[in-house]
Design a protein that fits this description.
heterotrimer; A alpha/beta (334); B alpha/beta (350); C mainly alpha (295); B: alpha/beta; 8-stranded mixed β-sheet; C: 295 residues; mainly alpha
Chain lengths: 334, 350, 295
């Protein structure tokens, strides 16, 4: 075992926007070359975590370490030396490419910003190579973004993100805006590239099913905090936290027979606000299993199945709650 | 399971259709020329049926839905026929359409926030619909609004009725939209991507509400979605659209068990489903893109992306015909339908 | 297969830029074409007027005062001093357009950087916005009078006064577009890759803001033409006997009953120019609207 630095370490990351507690104490590690999916629904703060990592936001507190370097307190100028270590791909394929630039200019921009002296010719060669790697033809470099389809634009974004050979890629819902068949091809592309190049990846998504093929580990966020993290296999087969269980149970499967046999887990849809999160466990207001202790006491992160879970009902010995049992007794709606 | 039984029951008890769409074609005139969005679509909705219409963006599913009650812009050219219990809606006068819209056919859109007026309480907004269409008094309308809100599963409806839209969560707002839509007891409810903007834990509740409406009020529902999971959950019958045409149509279990059209099969294989594939397996891709057509050709429009396409597919458009055993009402428009049934869904209890 | 447009890179010739698209749309809009032709003609006439004007604009001819339009040698008649109205309109339009262009250039040179800064840098926004409010609160005519009092009434000073009055509009438009662009992901992507503020502003924000700046300019020009007319009418702009559309209106005022053409014709030209600019500005805005692509 060689002591290599982790690709990303977050220590108690906090990001408050005024009174809004978007991210409230996240501790997460991504080892070199591994893919961690950060899963959460709208308002969970998952995208803010990504923006803190690439320092689009300066965290309120906590530490962000990229490839062993603490970048939390660096100024923008100092940060520039480390910009090549991390790249980001955004969700919206329409907004993430400058409409006034040719695809070639867009993909080459990180090279020009890196400050290294490269001839124009070399730069164009690198762009062509990178476009080829994401499955686009070199001619695409002379197109404008609006001439491309959503999937092609997302490939351009990926090419741009990878041209500086980052050690860590932040993928912020890269496939959520795409059609099913296109989504499949982009997910496959990311998986292939990750295997070939070996970058580490923080894959931010609201869709658990999208990461089954990609992620080594999964971390689940709810209202600014991690409720559970662990190896993919275990999260899918033995989810510990009631929220993770609800997420898995709520995503409908494309199979009517199975789907209609499944026990529905209906959470209330009144999401608490990040301005004033509930006391104790933040999930307690929607949790079918909540009891007195959940309001009084913040659950600690308990070691569970190779990861952690923050629930009073989870024990390190493998005991875990089952939301379906609770849903059974109170399945009535309205 | 009860739902599956119900699906079977309702498709068996098909009487006269509530909504009958015949040869509906829609095209738009744009700067770049004419764009054909919908091509000779036939569709009938039986009373109390939930029909799912599925396809990717650009397949014409939303345009079909909008043309049903004349919600299309002026640049649209519509031909064919849409009959609601015998009343022709294509080319009908605006006064007829106005009466039909909201009262007989109701719509739910994807964005619950932009469809609600931010400066009126939800009670007022639901009440207004009732005052206009049902000529109810203000007080009666309010009482009915409270009833409707609890019908769609909003807890403490008597209090919520005085809330403004911004005081409600996304899921609550969509429930309010549904309450408004069903306020006048419409015969047909068209839900265009009703859960796409919502979180998955909220989506389940909304789908439950739609199912409840059908069970309690007997509302006929057309659900438009790109999400096969939603279809699997809620639809009795499925209509698959591609590039403006219906390519396959079948009862939900038949369609998922044995998709005949190559596009349907590709779509099913491409959608990630937890537990369906092993961890390392790749998702299946459909190469190429949905074409944008100016004139619908006499050919299969999926041919360029289809693994089974040959010369015949490019020379003649396949008709939408019964496939498989003659007993089922499974239709597909394909010259080379998928032969072997997909592996039967395993009866795992996850 | 009649495939109209496959949204793939294979479709059509490479790199159909936004510019070509916008130009194509303008060409298809008859109002845009007409207003553009009017403006182009006006520009050519104004540019060449010192050489193509049939008469010396200052040459008086007391034998032929108040000749009506159609008089041989004086197509549009003469004024109270027997000066040729056509020649004076040609040179007057030249002066008006010059003032308008100068004014708009002034407002853009000062307004665009301030708008960019206000939209991009949070800390500057408050200061610049107060400055904008101050300018807006300051009556335009009083400022023009003040400027004329200090520096004398002249074409340049009229242009400067009008230009200053138009700065707030430019700042607002550029600021709001900068705010919009700043929030877009391609700006974030550039920042993540280590772009400096200057790089982001020059390479991403300004190029994408040009369309709104262009529209703002075409709308500001007719306002400036009218502003010049007002100032010259009040004697704060171009000084007689040099012709401007405003001074012509002012001096023809007294004889409006005897020689209505001397007042009406420059008025019509002012209106025509302002209208043409406004119509063209609207058409340009429509053509630049990305949503206009749909239907």
């Amino acid at each position: 075992m060689t002591p290599q630095p982790n690709a990303l370490e977050l220590e108690d990351l906090v990001m408050h926007f005024g009174p809004v507690r978007a991210v409230d104490g996240i501790t997460l590690t991504i080892p070199k070359g591994r893919v961690t999916a950060l899963v959460g629904e709208s308002g969970s703060g998952k995208s803010t975590v990504g923006r803190c990592v690439v320092r689009l936001e300066k965290p309120t507190a906590g530490v962000v370490r990229i490839a062993g370097t603490d970048v939390t307190q660096l100024t923008r100028r100092q940060l520039r030396q480390h910009r090549n270590d991390v790249s980001i791909v955004f969700q919206d394929p329409a907004g993430s490419l400058d409409p006034r630039m040719l695809v070639g200019e867009i993909v080459a921009e990180p090279l020009r910003l890196s400050g290294k002296r490269i001839t124009r010719r070399d730069r164009e060669a690198r762009v062509a190579e990178e476009l080829g790697r994401v499955g686009l033809r070199a001619e695409v470099a002379r197109r404008y973004p609006h001439e491309l389809s959503g999937g092609q634009r997302q490939r351009v974004s990926i090419a741009r993100a990878l041209i500086s050979e980052p050690k860590l890629l932040i993928a912020d819902e890269p496939t959520s805006a795409l059609d099913v068949s296109v989504q499949a091809s982009v997910l496959n592309l990311l998986a292939d590239l990750q295997r070939d190049i070996g970058f580490a990846c923080l894959f931010i998504t609201h869709d658990l099913s999208a990461v089954e093929y990609l992620a080594d580990d999964i971390a689940v966020m709810y209202l600014g905090q991690l409720v559970e993290q662990g190896p993919r296999e275990r999260i899918f087969t033995r989810p510990a936290h009631p929220y993770t269980q609800a997420l898995l149970a709520a995503a409908p499967v494309a199979d009517p027979v199975r789907q209609r046999q499944r026990q529905p887990v209906l959470l209330g849809d009144d999401l608490p606000s990040a301005l004033d999160p509930p006391s104790g466990c933040r999930f307690r207001t929607r949790c079918p299993l909540a009891f007195d202790r959940c309001a009084a006491e913040v659950p600690a992160q308990v070691a569970f199945g190779g990861g952690l879970a923050a629930c009073h009902l989870v024990q390190p010995d493998g005991t875990r709650p089952d939301v379906r049992a609770a849903a059974d007794s109170s399945e009535v709606l309205s | 399971m009860t739902t599956v039984e119900r699906a079977a029951a309702s498709s068996a008890a098909v009487g006269t259709p509530v909504l009958d769409v015949r040869d509906l074609s829609v095209s738009f005139t744009t700067e770049g020329g004419t764009v054909s969005a919908v091509d000779r679509v036939n569709l009938d909705l039986a009373s109390g049926e939930i029909v799912g219409m599925v396809g990717e963006s650009g397949c014409g599913k939303s345009v079909t839905a909008m043309s049903i009650a004349g919600l299309l812009p002026d640049s649209a050219r519509v031909s064919g026929s849409v009959r609601l219990e015998g009343t022709e809606l294509v080319g009908a006068r605006e006064s007829v359409l106005r009466r039909v819209r909201g009262k007989e056919i109701a719509y739910i859109f994807q964005e619950p926030m932009t469809s609600l007026n931010p400066v009126l309480t939800v009670g007022r907004q639901i009440g207004e619909v009732l005052q206009v269409h049902e000529r109810m008094s203000k007080r009666a309308a309010r009482a009915r609004a409270v009833e409707l809100l609890s019908l769609v599963g909003i807890p403490s409806a008597a209090k919520r009725v005085d809330n403004y839209p911004h005081q409600l969560s996304g899921g609550m707002r969509q429930r309010v939209m549904i309450a408004m839509a069903v306020a006048c007891g419409p015969k047909v409810l068209v839900a265009d991507e009703p859960t796409t903007a919502l979180d998955v834990t909220v989506q389940a509740g909304i789908l439950q509400v739609l199912r409840d409406l059908r069970d309690r009020l007997g509302t006929t529902i057309l659900v438009i979605t790109h999400d096969l999971g939603v279809i699997a959950d809620i639809a009795d019958r499925v209509v698959v659209m591609y590039a403006g045409r219906v390519v396959e149509q079948a009862p939900v279990t038949d369609l998922f068990a044995h998709p005949y059209h190559r596009y349907t099969a590709g779509l099913l294989a491409a959608s990630p489903t937890p537990g369906k594939h092993a961890g390392t397996e790749r998702l299946q891709e459909i190469p190429g893109l949905v074409p944008v057509l100016s004139i619908q050709p006499d050919a299969c429009t999926f041919a360029d992306r289809c693994p089974a396409a040959d010369a015949r597919c490019r020379e003649a458009a396949p008709p939408l015909e019964a496939v498989g055993t003659a007993v089922t009402d499974h239709l597909a428009a394909c010259w080379h339908p998928c032969p072997a049934p997909r592996t039967q869904p395993q009866e795992t209890t996850a | 297969m009649t495939v109209l447009s496959v949204p793939m890179a294979e479709a059509g010739p490479a790199g159909i830029s936004r510019r070509t698209r916008v130009l194509r749309r303008l060409r298809r809009n008859p109002l845009a074409v007409v207003s553009f032709v009017v403006l182009a003609l006006a520009a050519v006439v104004a540019l060449l007027s010192p050489w193509i004007a049939p008469h010396d604009v200052q040459q008086t001819d007391f034998a032929h005062t108040f000749s009506p339009p159609g008089t041989p040698g004086h197509l549009l008649g003469t004024d109270d001093l027997g000066r040729d109205v056509l020649s004076r309109i040609m040179l007057g339009a030249r002066a008006s357009l010059l003032v308008a262009l100068l004014a708009v250039a002034t407002s853009l040179i000062i307004g665009v950087p301030l708008g960019l800064a206000a939209g991009y840098f949070r800390s500057w926004d408050a200061v610049i916005s107060r400055f904008t409010d101050l300018l807006l609160a300051f009556p335009f005519l009083i400022m023009a009078v003040g400027l004329a009092a200090i520096r004398g009434a002249s074409l340049t000073n009229a242009a400067v006064a009008i230009g200053i009055a138009q700065i707030p509009g430019v700042i607002r438009v550029v600021r709001s577009d900068t705010l919009r662009l700043k929030a877009l992901d391609f700006v974030a992507a550039a920042v993540v890759d280590g772009a400096s503020d200057l790089w982001v502003l020059a390479k991403h924000v300004l190029p994408n803001a040009t369309s709104v700046i262009l529209v703002q300019a075409t709308v500001a020009i007719p306002a400036a033409i009218l502003g010049e007319a007002v100032l010259s009418f009040l004697g704060l702009g171009i000084q007689p006997p040099a012709p401007s559309l405003g001074t012509m209106l002012a001096s023809a005022q007294q004889f409006a009953a005897r020689a209505p053409w001397a007042a009406v014709l420059p008025g019509v030209v002012i209106m025509g120019l302002a209208l043409a600019f406004n119509v063209f500005g609207d058409a340009l805005r429509d053509a630049l609207d990305p949503k206009g692509d749909r239907r």
